[in-house]
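Bit of a strange request maybe. I'm writing a small parser for structure token strings and I need a real example to test against, not something I typed by hand. Could someone generate the tokens for this chain?
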Amino acid sequence: MSRRRADSQGSLGPDDEVMPYSDDETDDELDASSEEELEEPPGAPQPPMGWKVKANDRPYHHLPEFEKKVFLCIKKSRYSGNAIKTYKYNVLTFIPLNLYEQFKRVANLYFLALLILQIIPDISTLPWYTTLIPLVVVLGVTAIKDLVDDLARHRMDKEINNRKCDVLQDGRFQSSKWRNIEVGDVVRLRKNDFIPADILLLSSSNPNSLCYVETAELDGETNLKFKLGLRVTDEQLQEERQLAEFDALIECEEPNNRLDKFIGTMLWQSERYPLDLDNMLLRGCKVRNTEECHGLVIFAGADTKIMRNGGKTRFKRTKIDELMNYMVYTIFALLILVAAGLAIGHSFWYEEIGSNAWYLYDGKDQSASYRGFLSFWGYIIVLNTMVPISLYVSVEVIRLGQSKFINWDLQMYFAEKDTPAKARTTTLNEQLGQIEYIFSDKTGTLTQNVMQFKKCTIAGRSYGEPTTAEGVVLDRGRPVDWSWNQHADRKFEFMDHSLVAIIRSKKDKDVTEFFKLLSLCHTVMVENKDGELVYQAASPDEGALVTAARNFGYVFLSRTQDTISIKEMDHETTYEMLALLDFNSDRKRMSIILKFPDGRVRLYCKGADTVIYERLSPNSRHKETTQTALDEFANATLRTLCLCYKDISADEYAAWSRKHKDAQVAMVDRDAALDRVYEEIESNLMLIGATAIEDKLQDGVPETIATLAKADIKIWVLTGDKKETAENIGYSCSLLTDDMQIHYGEDVKEVVNLRIRQTQRRHEPPAARLGKKKPVQPFFPEPGKNALIITGGWLNEILYEKKKKRRRLRLRRLGKRPPPSTPQDGQPMDDLEKEMRQIDFVDMACECEAVICCRVTPKQKANVVSLVKKYKKAVTLSIGDGANDVNMIKTADIGVGISGQEGMQAVMSSDYAFAQFRYLERLLLVHGRWSYIRMCKFLRYFFFKNFAFTLVHFWYSFFSGYSSQVAYEDWFITLYNLCYSSLPVLLVGLLDQDVNDKLSLKFPKLYLPGQQGSMFNYKNFFISLFHGIFVSLIIFFIPYGAFLQTMGQDGEAPSDYQSLAVVTASSLIFTVNLQISLDTSYWTFVNCFAVLGSIAIYFGIMFDIHSAGIHVIFPSQFTFTGAASNALRQPYLWLTIILTVGISLLPVICIQFLHKTIWPSVGDKVQRNRKKYEMEMQVEEKKKPSAFQRGRRSRRSAYAFSHSRGYADLISSGRSIRRRPPARGGPQDSIREVPHREAENI
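Reply from user aminoacidic:
Good idea to test on real output. This should exercise your parser:
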């Protein structure tokens, strides 16, 4: 299938490769900064910056000019302390703050009001304890849960704040806790220390104050980054005494969340020195490869970039929570209407009957309307159980149990890292069963960030398939034995024995040149550690290529500022390095110019095929065969790189070198000048071949994505990586498939489509615009699956982000652009226009099966998530592993952190955490679906049982003069929700499952009801309401009819109020407990025990409460003396109970039978054939699963290379190079590349 891309020049095609900055300015700040930029003449000095830090001077930062108002006249320093606080309560605030938060929940406030009403004698129809006991239990259980959660946060904060660090105090370094560090302190860090604050690097034990840091906590990347101290501080601040006398003033930008930017100046000894991000060590990083370094604290605590990047912590609630609240409001409304109706009835009744009946006179001369008013409040109390107070505590218990099941799931335990799954919140479990969109990071989440050299093509011949040394292709081979190479990395696997045979024979010049290039053309740093060489690459790709060259006998040994030494099979050669032309995202290639020992000058170059092929010499051979091989590698979703060389004459190099030196010292636009010079020499190249590297996916990622897609869950990948890399991974993990039409965001067609709609809207009146909810036609009218690949730059442009606004303002100020009186500039005229544009983007993206956003910042990731949440009202899940994913994780309805070697920032901010992406499938399709089904079943039943219980009072009121008289005994009302009917429904909410976990995974379509919200909604609520009304009718009127004209066996009429109360209560207990039995899909001993136990507890407590003994002790509280034993010895009344229960349950049994027979759901069908499916699965498990086949497709290969600059500047400056090491040991000295995850051994 052809995937030709449209040209995207001009305004339609923002630079794909430029990472848009993480813009967190407000519009006001933006306007102000734009004006400043415009009004300054060129060359004007920069205005003073807002953040000032004085070294070794704590009192300076507490001066009045640096104070800010906190509350009324109370002021405090604007500089944060270094202690962090994530907890909510302390000893003094826990009780008042927790009660305040709990009473923000309307139901709790309602029950408190009821309690107050019950204390008023004129109104009270029930004793106060019927409300107080359940309220105290609910508040107590919730408070204990909140306390446990907060204690865990306290422990974590304490652990971090009490970490130790050396701080310069009173002229010498003293050990201090992190919490006591302040802005302006000089600190000393050692190897493997975490960095406690955002620190300006002053000096280190490495030459030229070089310091390596691991940024895994920030961005999930495990390859090391380097930081540099200023030359002046490196030279003058090595000793403790010099550091104590250091008194520089730092002026820099205010604290912000931009991880990729820092601007400041240092004023010291009357000189100003510029500062940038390369001089900063950020909190959350770890010092590596550096024995000791010193730094000055610039930002502390909440002001640090990592804390600023956390985004706002949002209180997350589930859809069911919101629905439940609305339903509680509906019940409130029903309650008030019913109470008002009964109060009016009481007024009329008293007027007509009550006032005329002498035997009903109570000694109070109150009017009928006043009595009706009192009756209204009386019925509010009597019918309050329609809003069940135990609902909320039961929901909390169920959620806690479901969270524990996730924590205990051994199938989500990653033994390799000893990492179990962890539910870090207990409030969102059922939302896991309703996910519609997943937003995933790429590096470290879908991939392992581990690169492996898999295949290559040299001089038109491909290598990498299982092959014998003689070149015979095998179906299944064995890995090459590297024992002939003492320097080989034993973990490196390669299946092609023929390539090794060719290299060892030394007969093929092209193969020799190929591996020589890999060992010479790179920016890998090497360090001699105890006779071992340790490689440190700027990207995992480079490490994989240099490791491959090493295994094939071309070992990179050492480099200085102007030489590079390698071991070529059995002899060592040193080459003079004349120039290193580093990679950047525009060039997509890197080159090195070397002088060979025999005097020849040669350029080696490696880069993306798209840029290399444009620069090949017409005489270059093997172009077509290499291109074919590249397409094959791309089909196998491998990351490819072309290798080439060029011989340069001495005169040509001399002329070019002069231009290069001029470009290096250019004051204006130096990068562009260097690029032009590089372009000149990188031409007429001769192609050698190409490499193919596999960016290893985590285990099970393609299968997980395929299964989730079957469950109608759409997956978007949001990454800071290049477009080619992201697209490549998209194919390898089955997110993109052969049958999808790929649309690129900057393609003219889509942008024009958006702009046509925009123009059409502009010419419509506002009223017509508001009326349009959906676009008339879809963006992709052609049938078939679509996928969208967009970049951060395009996203900014299409959604009118502030970067465009800044440029537009500048142009307008300079007179090059008119103010926006007309809409011709393609920009929004108002907020509605911008909103409609956002809706267009979301509609377009949501029409696609898969969306990949590359080159996006942490803030843009969060913006994309919030747009889908806002305009699609969809339940979203974000999954990531680094600090750059924190904002996205907090914005989504559910945030999942991958806990592995990539740091814990994402996990700390997440709701759920586990070690591998593949566990997401089980979390959603098993735990999420079960949690949703259980919660829905629980709520439906809970509302039903309370309506059935409460509405008996309503029917009874017609026979009691609407006098707020209760139909049951007081203690039955108190204990009904606590003891008699709570346990069976609680166990259904905890343990029920319609099908087992294996069938849940086998049939992803079972997940759909959760997405549609079809198992609990207003329809289900009203069904529960009418079911409750029906059962309450039966429970009241059948005993009432039976009692109407009857005679007991002993000649006594048992038709008294107390006997009626006992029979209705007994009928209710049997009905609700047998009803939950009908709704239980998964029976265990515990369920059976709960149902029978609840009935037994009811009779046990009832006979105790109705005994004479307890009446003697508490005569006023226990008034039903002997009622139960008297009523229940009549067989007639047992028959009445059986009849009542039978008529209550019979319609439900019939309806369930018809539903499962005539209109079965997917779940019913699976349940019916459960045995058959389980046997099929057992047969499948016995068969060996076939290996995953990668998708086949035809497209340009992706550029496998670092998306950040390499170490070329560092190498060419000579700043990182130690003095030449002494003579290397003999063959026994081993050379190894340390895996990034084991960086602490470096």
